[in-house]
Amino acid sequence: MKTTALERAGQGLIVALLALMCVSILYPFLYMLAISLNSGADAARGGIYLWPRSFTWINYEIVLGNEVIRHAYLVTIARTVVGTFGGLAVTLLAAYGLSYKQLPFRNGILTYILITMLFNGGLVPFYIQLFKLGLTNNFWVYIIPSLFSAWNMFVMQKFIQGIPEAMIESAELDGAGPLRILLQIIVPLSKPMLAALGLFTAVFHWNDWFSGAFYVSDQNLIPVQTFLQQLLSAQDLSAVLGSNNNQEALARASSVNITLMSIKMATVMISALPILTIYPFLQKYFTKGVMIGSVKG
């Protein structure tokens, strides 16, 4: 089909705008990467924009050699893995059960869940509830409160309801029970949606700094994003590396002219890279799952 000059001009404008948007997104990332790979004292002089002027790995050696940061990464990885699989399991089971129209009190339960999406008790009552349940200063404060997401449940329920009823009825006639139908029919057909929701959930757990900042005071339980938030508000390296267990790291950082900014950039890069490396492997499921959800929703 032949396109007109006006259509080609419009397509060119769209490509230019998308390219400009990509540059605006990529440039801050490349800038932080350049600073993290540059000597801190040299970076403080300015003039670094896309690539390091004085290349070094010392910033990453200091960050990865810090016991507090390594432990924070372990906490983040653990909460992301446990929270993602736990959240998907709870969401799938709730959506599967509520997809049955014959379920007693089904409409009332759905209405109650919908109300929780629109109203909440607020931060203070929520903190009191966590305290009464013994979840403050506890690893499970990252997992249990976020196991169920009303939005994810509704999206998953709509997807399950879009599966042809004839398949489920045929399985029931063959003697399959609810659990077998779930594992052999619902789960295989729901892989794109589960991948999309799993990515959303994993990104939430990986990026969440709020829970560690307000519900946890034990430094051994903070996730890496909370540590990063503390690092970004720090005024000097001693606030980050100056504990009794990190005097050696602090002395080394001082001897090689490491600056707080270079340490910040290295920590930001390390905290962002895992999600950036996982996303390409889930992209095809993510795109398919979102499109299916939007059509069936």
Automatic annotation (TrEMBL):
Q: What family is reported?
A: Belongs to the binding-protein-dependent transport system permease family.
Q: Cellular location of this protein?
A: Cell membrane
Q: Which domain of life is it from?
A: Bacteria
Q: What's the protein called, per UniProt?
A: Carbohydrate ABC transporter permease
**What organism is listed for this UniProt entry?**
Cohnella suwonensis
Q: Which UniProt keywords apply?
A: Cell membrane, Membrane, Transmembrane, Transmembrane helix, Transport
- ABC transmembrane type-1 domain residues are 73-269
Give the principal location in a single coarse category.
membrane
Q: Source taxonomy lineage?
A: Bacteria, Bacillati, Bacillota, Bacilli, Bacillales
InterPro entries attached here? MetI-like, MetI-like_sf
User: Entry's PROSITE patterns?
Assistant: ABC_TM1
Q: Name one Pfam family in it.
A: BPD_transp_1
